[in-house]
User: Which sequence fits this backbone?
């Protein structure tokens, strides 16, 4: 009797693993295939799409990098995302500190105000922002992207950081106070260093989100030299354009940074995702 | 200490940057959007108040809007249901295996962090008429369908393909959320249920499901808002074509606002989108969410 039940378990385990492996194949195959195609030439895609390339065409990458302005676009993306990341962490954790630790009447109300931002789709502020930003010279300007990126990263930053600050014991702040710390010192030398993990996790989340953002970047930037990566990619497609191999090289260039970030910090990204979602 | 924490100057210093940014980049533009939506406003003229004319146009005379609304709602329902089922299934399977859990988890979550603009281009290629999947089918002697161009039926094939791709890309997120919640459940509950003679399925239905219900609400509202906002994949896979058949609210807004420069009209679409998001979040939180259990 015991033997049979054990066998049954094994069969189930095999079925589960089979399912998971097939699914993993569905996930990885398109990405790996893209990697393969990106070093072929255009004729090979039609004749032998799944075979190894005759000769590895690294030129595809150099072409995409220079002629498609991808080098410039990567730089732009990096500038925008890093600046937005730093600003949103600083501004967000300041606000979170005030909400979590300081005592004032409207702190809860303020938190709700920020959390509503999580539900607002970026689309419905697109037109007014576009109008305002063109009026004050932020159109075709990287700062015009940074401002909304920071704003849309704030709700999640404030939410996660508020949790971190809230859970710190009151005693350390009291001790610091007795030693003559003012409130700004309490924030910068105690609260922030103690919540490094939180900062790191939220930083990763907003970096990935901003790196992939398409709509705002498409609307606010029209100058080829100022476009960010997701927008620059669309240059490789057009109704009469069949330059597939270079398009794939460009896609690979665009997704490599996030893949690297993900491989190094996948656990932290997951922490951030779950911490951000468990809102009361 | 108390005096320190009530320091008004410090509070203002800490909160002001975030508050100002939020007000000027989010709150005021939303109000402006509502105002524009009540105006006849294109790029060159000044906004001129016309009441609810834009909304009347939108719901009564605009065929594309009807397609967009239909597609958006289909998309929302599909991704809510499919991500709930698939996410739960994956989470349940992954918490029950011993080896390779991290590998599978990371693989399934990978597309979530990749640019959907880039993945859209990749899938456009895979589903193009003569390449990708149809090449495989052709080598077996099957004439593949025109995945992204066949527009017959109430919900046309391109929308189904896009919905599938979206499921592929984002199911990892739901899976992660459910897994986090499941791994937080006290193991002794399961032990107790096995002692009482429950099978694995029974303990899943009676212990796991009720305990992760708050997370179901959260994941569903994330999915809902996410799928209503959906833009990148469609824009890069079909550009809302052929003949506007794969239009959703976000692409319709983009076309009206930034191709035809009908700012007032596009703002009305934006307001509809915002209201849908708020209503859906409200409904889900009202009906799916319950008091969380003590764990």
Assistant:
């Amino acid at each position: 009797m015991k033997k049979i039940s054990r066998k049954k378990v094994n069969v189930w385990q095999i079925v589960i693993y089979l399912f998971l492996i097939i699914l993993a194949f569905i996930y990885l195959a398109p990405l790996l295939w893209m990697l393969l195609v990106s070093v072929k030439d255009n004729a090979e895609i039609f004749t032998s799409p799944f075979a190894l390339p005759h000769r590895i065409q690294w030129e595809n990458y150099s072409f995409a990098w220079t002629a498609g302005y991808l080098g410039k676009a990567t730089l732009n993306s990096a500038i925008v995302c890093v600046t937005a990341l730093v600003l949103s962490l600083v501004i967000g954790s300041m606000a979170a500190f005030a909400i979590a630790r300081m005592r004032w009447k409207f702190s809860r109300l303020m938190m709700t105000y920020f959390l509503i931002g999580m539900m607002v789709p970026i689309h419905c502020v697109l037109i007014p922002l576009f109008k305002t930003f063109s009026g004050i010279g932020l159109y075709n300007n990287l700062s015009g992207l940074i401002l909304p990126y920071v704003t849309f990263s704030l709700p999640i930053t404030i939410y996660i950081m508020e949790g971190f600050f809230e859970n710190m014991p009151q005693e350390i702040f009291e001790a610091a106070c007795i030693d003559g710390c003012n409130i700004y010192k309490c924030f910068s030398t105690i609260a922030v260093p103690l919540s490094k993990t939180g900062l790191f996790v939220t930083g990763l989340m907003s970096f990935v989100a901003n790196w992939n953002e398409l709509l705002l970047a498409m609307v606010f930037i029209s100058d080829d030299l100022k476009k960010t990566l997701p927008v620059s990619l669309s240059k490789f497609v057009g109704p009469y354009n069949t330059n597939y191999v270079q398009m794939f090289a460009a896609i690979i260039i665009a997704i490599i940074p996030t893949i690297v970030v993900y491989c190094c910090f996948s656990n932290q990204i997951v922490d951030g995702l779950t911490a951000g979602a468990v809102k009361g | 200490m108390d005096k320190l924490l009530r320091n008004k100057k410090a509070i203002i210093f800490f909160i002001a940057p975030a508050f100002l940014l939020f007000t000027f980049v989010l709150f005021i533009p939303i109000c402006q959007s509502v105002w524009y939506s009540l105006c006849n406003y294109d790029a060159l003229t000044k906004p001129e108040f016309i009441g609810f004319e834009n909304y009347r146009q939108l719901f009564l005379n605009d065929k594309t809007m009807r397609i967009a609304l239909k597609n958006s709602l289909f998309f929302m329902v599909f991704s809510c249901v499919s991500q709930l089922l698939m996410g739960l299934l994956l989470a349940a399977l992954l918490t029950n295996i011993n080896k390779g859990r991290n590998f599978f988890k990371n693989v399934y979550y990978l597309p979530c962090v990749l640019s959907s603009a880039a993945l859209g281009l990749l899938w456009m290629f895979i589903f193009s008429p003569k390449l990708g999947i149809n090449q495989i089918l052709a080598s077996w002697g099957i004439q593949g369908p025109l995945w992204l161009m066949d527009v017959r039926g109430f919900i046309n094939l391109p929308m189904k393909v896009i919905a599938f791709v979206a499921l592929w890309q984002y199911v990892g997120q739901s899976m992660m959320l459910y897994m986090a919640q499941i791994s937080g459940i006290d193991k002794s509950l399961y032990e107790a249920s096995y002692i009482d003679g429950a099978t694995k399925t029974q303990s899943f239905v009676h212990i796991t499901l009720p305990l992760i219900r708050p997370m179901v609400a959260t994941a569903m509202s994330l999915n809902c808002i996410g799928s209503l906002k959906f833009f990148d994949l469609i824009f890069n896979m079909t550009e809302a074509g052929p003949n506007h058949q794969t239009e959703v609210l976000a692409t319709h807004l983009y076309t009206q606002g930034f191709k035809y420069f009908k700012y007032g009209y596009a703002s009305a679409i934006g307001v509809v989108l915002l209201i849908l998001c708020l209503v859906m979040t409200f409904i889900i939180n009202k009906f799916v969410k319950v008091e969380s259990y003590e764990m």
Residues 63-95 of chain B form the longest helix (33 residues). The radius of gyration of chain B is 24 Å.
